[in-house]
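Suppose a colleague, Dr. K., hands you the sequence of a protein chain of 399 amino acids and asks what its three-dimensional shape might be. Before reaching for any lab equipment, you can write down a predicted structure in token form. Begin with the sequence itself:
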Amino acid sequence: MVGKTNVGKSTFFAAATLAVVEIGNRPFVTLEPSVGVAYVRKRCVHVELGLPKCEPRQGFCLEGWRFIPVKLADIPGLIPGAHEGKGLGNQFLDAIRRADATILVVDAAGATDAAGNPVPPGSYDPVEEVRWLEKEIEEWMYGVVSRDWDRFAMRVSTTGENPLEALTQRLSGFSVTRSHVERALRGAGLENKPLNKWSRADLRLFIHHLRLSKSLVIAANKADIPEAEDNIKRLKKELSYPVVPTSAASELALRKAAKAGLIRYIPGDPDFEILDEKRLTRQQLRALEYIREHVLKKWGSTGVQQAINTTFLDALGLIVVYPVEDATHFTDGKGRILPDAYLVPRGTTARELAYMIHTDLGRTFLYAVNAKTKQRIGEDYELQDGDVVKIVAAAAKKG
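The predicted structure, expressed as tokens, is then:
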């Protein structure tokens, strides 16, 4: 999660993870990156299979919804010039290196200026906010890659190294893959140009397309404020990224109320149910009604869970598969029903799943079984969303 300071990132993080973080209406509340566990929400396959329950080893299942754990990092707020060390400096941009995807939290209400100071709602343009954040990330990436570039480019061009492989290796610290590099080269029109012939403009264009190849989702926060509605329409119209209207403060309030047993609410639901009105103060009832009218009825959810799902399931294109040891009862070796749910890239094969479970299982892979159909599947079978799979491997050699 990135964004300028004071847009509600810490509130989003707290709502998504129920972690204890400092939250305040002032710039630079977060001084160190915070890392926690959030969850992707998917309809659990135990419902489809007609099973009474599942028994997750990690995450949890609520009323047929499986919540699969993912890592979420809240990067301290950025201001224009962060890549030059302004504000809290570009050391925090470095924290983005290992991320597979980015959730960019913006103030959709336009209620904070570029430095994160509170201003009247509607005073600041969230589209401009996205533009300069894009520039900060791009300038930072360019600064890192351009260091010692000439020497690197000459070495690759004179030693006969594969440019694609060399670039992928050099950029591995950004969590980019070979396919990311290929797309960036193609987008910049540099597939066939020797690296030592690249101009600085070529390198900047390549970095631009490399940034675009990385998954990014906009969390348009403070969506409950009236001025946010038109801004969210503009964000969706003018940007190519997925834009999710979000009210992190509402989600945090609902999750805390649910945890206290005051309401029935499952993260991502379009509504909640008050369990005992007598336990709520008049102020709490007014706050809950505000959330219902100005957030849930208007946007369909608070957006926090939807932003996480959009990032992992849509932007990253991940699917959920369930490995089991018993294809008849859908259990592991200890009899637990559907204990594991793996988020894997679309196109993952049965053997690749075996390697994800355990290296030895992948190495000695024989075949797999689709537990839903009971059919044998080979190593090259591409897993489908919701597959339940038993891996069959050769017995490990003793010695």
